[in-house]
Design a protein that fits this description.
GO terms for molecular function: oxidoreductase activity. With 328 residues, this protein is of the alpha/beta class. It contains twelve helices and 14 strands. The strands form three sheets. The protein has a seven-stranded mixed beta sheet with strand order 3-2-4-5-7-6-12, with helices on both faces. A five-stranded mixed beta sheet has the order 9-11-10-13-14, with helices on both faces.
Amino acid sequence: MAELQLREAIRAAMSEEMRRDDKVFLMGEEVAEYNGAYKVSKGMLDEFGSDRVIDTPISELGFAGLGIGAAMNGLRPIIEFMTWNFSFVAFDQVVNNAANIRYMSGGQFGTPIVFRGPNGAAGQLAATHSNSVEAIYANFPGLKVISVSNPDDAKGLLKSAVRDDDPVLFLESELMYGLKGEVSDEDDYTLPIGKARVARTGGDVTIVAHNKSYHLAMNAAEELAKQGYEAEVIDPRTIKPLDIDTIVESVVKTNRLVIVDESNPFTSFASEVSQQVQERAFDYLDAPVARVNAADTPSPYAPNLYEAYMPSVDETVTACRQVLYADA
């Protein structure tokens, strides 16, 4: 096992796929000459040249569309958004074109394309740079949505995403690019899309959390353990397709569920998981499903308000104690 930063694991995945298949290329703002806004693509221009690591103008609508056209013609583009907030400028290309081309062409055209970049809040970046987009894009049939919490998953799932014949949205985090973790040194390491990971086993309460929220959930589980409660933590890894079977299996065991999700609460990922669990495991629930979300407001800029806006360890512990009736 090699220890890599998240940015290094993503770079390794892209580089390996570009060496394996000359149809794969990377395109986005500052990915080439500047080595990437977050240094994810550092050194890739030197290795692969300007035909395959391509700097673009500040025009997400344009280069997303260019990438979709390239995918329709047999290439496998990786399109980097400097932040997923900027993908809203390319929304029509992603949800009307990439998502629908295979269906509307009767399978004559595919769009094997990966859109990737950082998602969610990253500190004091204010409302227009802090949206969590997973629930928005997962609403559209034809799109696969992956959200990673660690370097090993990032490498294995990104390689699988590049090889997938459908459009995949790959969500990272600015705050985690420097996160270090062990990454498999297995040759051609891939992970299956659509399979959750049980990160911590326990019998008292199930916590489902992805991306940055996963680390918050693990910290909450440690705090609960000090109080005598063992939480099972599940990282879904793939938002769509969702591995609901693994989540339900855990809820059948623990009889309680808390979902931590930094999306705003209305029609969030947490809302969908809650609904699917009550459809499949209602009779096993000993308490209402609890959700821990960001506040239902635009993200504040002031640090004290931002702290209050985001989900926290304390909120997660409180939610778990509520479903456990620990304070009754």
